[in-house]
Design a protein that fits this description.
InterPro entries: LysR-type_TF_proteobact-type (IPR058163), LysR_HTH_N (IPR000847), LysR_subst-bd (IPR005119), WH-like_DNA-bd_sf (IPR036388), WH_DNA-bd_sf (IPR036390). It holds the Pfam family HTH_1. Keywords: DNA-binding, Transcription, Transcription regulation. The protein is an alpha/beta fold. It folds into 3 domains: about 80 residues, Winged helix-like DNA-binding domain superfamily/Winged helix DNA-binding domain (Arc Repressor Mutant, subunit A); about 100 residues, D-Maltodextrin-Binding Protein, domain 2, CATH 3.40.190.10; about 100 residues, Periplasmic binding protein-like II (D-Maltodextrin-Binding Protein, domain 2). Helix 1 packs across helix 4 and helix 2 packs across helix 3.
């Protein structure tokens, strides 16, 4: 007799989640495909496994017994598979990271992770495009944006203060008022959540119809431009911290409006949280962020 292993795995996911939709998200298939697999298993067994009432779905008595009978074995197979995949892939952790975060924050710290995890090699892809995790074999994404992405594990990572930044020879720290900024060339990344128009609104400043500016498609390009004396950038203080610590950037505005946002997020499929190398990297990220939060902005 042919055993419908795929249908059994889908049934187990539905029973565990109590939802066709949630099971589909977990398995990366559509609710319609979930329904088809459940129907296939019920036809194969000749019994009804679920009671359906509108969108609500519950196990029948025989469904509950079947779920109890197979659960331990399903979890054993799942854990063994994850363990084996971890052994096979332990040498490479594939990270997709927002380019500015990768260049300005991650690159300067990743060596501490590698020293503490010398059995892992890291591949960092500085790319802002959300990955197709299964197709591209990406383990984890450090993503810039709103934090609203469905069907994935999402954890806030970096909260940043958005402020004007420039080289100290362009303007000294706290030496300008918001109105003075129009005397300089202003820059930001077009992909940033906060642009100069928003900043001026919070500063209660009416900008002129046109001002000197240069736009980049990456925040780290705007930071490098400002650090080189090209103008004043509107960027996050934490991602710019390396430049600030080196004395290459200062905030030239005295008491700028506070704009604090969660800007970067840990994103991955829920099942990737069970992969040891992914858990180790997330734990390291949390510890590094905690160090910064303990010290505060400086």
């Amino acid at each position: 007799m042919t055993i419908p292993y795929r249908a059994i795995a889908v049934f187990h996911a539905v029973a565990r989640n109590g939802s066709l939709t949630a099971a589909g998200v977990e398995l990366s298939i559509t609710p319609s495909a979930v329904h088809q697999q459940v129907h296939h298993l019920e036809s194969h067994l000749g019994v009804k496994l679920f009671n359906r009432s509108g969108r609500k779905i519950t196990l029948t008595e025989v469904g509950e017994q079947y779920y109890a009978d197979i659960s331990a074995e399903i979890m054993h197979i799942e854990n063994s598979t994850i363990k084996l995949k971890g052994y096979r892939d332990i040498k490479t952790l594939s990270i997709r990271a927002a380019p500015t975060f990768a260049a300005c924050w991650l690159n300067g710290r990743i060596d501490t992770f590698l020293k503490a995890n010398d059995d892992i090699e890291v591949h960092i892809d500085g790319n802002s495009e959300p990955p197709h995790f299964l197709d591209e074999r990406v383990d984890i994404d450090i993503r810039y944006g709103s934090g609203i992405w469905s069907g994935l594990y999402i954890e806030p990572l970096l909260e940043d203060d958005i402020m004007p930044l420039c080289a100290p020879h362009v303007a000294a720290s706290a030496s300008l008022t918001p109105d003075d900024l129009f005397e300089f060339r202003l820059t930001h990344s077009i992909k940033n959540m906060i642009h100069w128009d928003h900043w001026f609104s919070l500063a209660e400043i009416q900008p002129p119809g046109r001002w000197r500016r240069i736009l980049f498609d990456r925040g780290h390009m705007a930071l490098d431009f400002a650090a080189g004396g090209g103008g004043i950038a509107l960027e996050g203080r934490r991602v710019a911290q390396k430049h600030i610590d080196q004395g290459r950037l200062v905030c030239p505005v005295d008491q700028p409006p506070l704009i604090r946002r969660h800007t970067h997020w840990i994103v991955c499929p829920y099942q990737n949280l069970r992969i040891p190398k992914v858990r180790r990297f997330i734990d390291w990220l949390r510890a590094e962020i905690m160090k910064v939060e303990t010290l505060g902005f400086h």
